[in-house]
Amino acid sequence: MALNLKTLGIRSLSATVFVIMLLGSVLWNYYSFTIFFFIVVLIGLNEFYKISEKLGAKPYKIVGYCIASLIYLSFLNFNYLAITIKNAELYKNLIIILFPFLILIKALFSKNQKPINDCIYTVIAIFYATIPFALLHQFVIFKNELIDDYQPLMLVGIIFLIWSNDTFAYLGGSLFGRHKMIERISPGKTWEGTIFGVLITFGISFLIKLYLIKTESNIWLILGIIVPILSTIGDLVESMLKRQAGIKDSGNIMPGHGGILDRFDSLIFVSPFVYVLFKIL
Q: pTM for the full model?
């Protein structure tokens, strides 16, 4: 197959812009980080709802956007923003507990023939495209003795591990790939490529521990194992959704790379599990 220089150029430019926007927003300050991922949430929800419609559902979009916005905003660190909200943690928990039931109430007044099906897709969209990004706020704010401090390097390190796995799994699969993982979902993924990506990413976690975030803890070595595994699962899950919907990409916001869910499918799966790991450790 001949190399299409125009396509390669578009993909390279699109990827460069994406990397600059992502890292720039995360590293600049907490405000840019918050705004960037709030936009990601809204676009990701829109893409998921379009996938849902291709699967025969009619999700309650307006209700979904409103609840997703409330959930995301409830995870903001108000202490860092110098905003005082009494019982903010309680309100956040109440929103998360009540939102499935609010959507069921909406279904009561729906004229669609399968309102429960519509409810399910509305709820799953919020869990899939909102909560993982809301949890990222727990990765960047650290409590000091006097004030809460914005420290984005933890999140940057996790993103580097995801990119490392994606890159080296692709290279490993191209060079050594023989045995398909789940061919019906992702024909290009091989066991050899996946193992190669995990091993190299585990090695890179040592470098992050030594040079990016110097620490005596072994947390980065643990992340070096679980992040590439979860990243691969996240990619496969999104491939499953797209294959069932009969589409190649979740969207077209990034020329040559697809949509927001295509770019963040790994982080979506990594975020909740890493959050739980941090709570346990």
A: 0.90
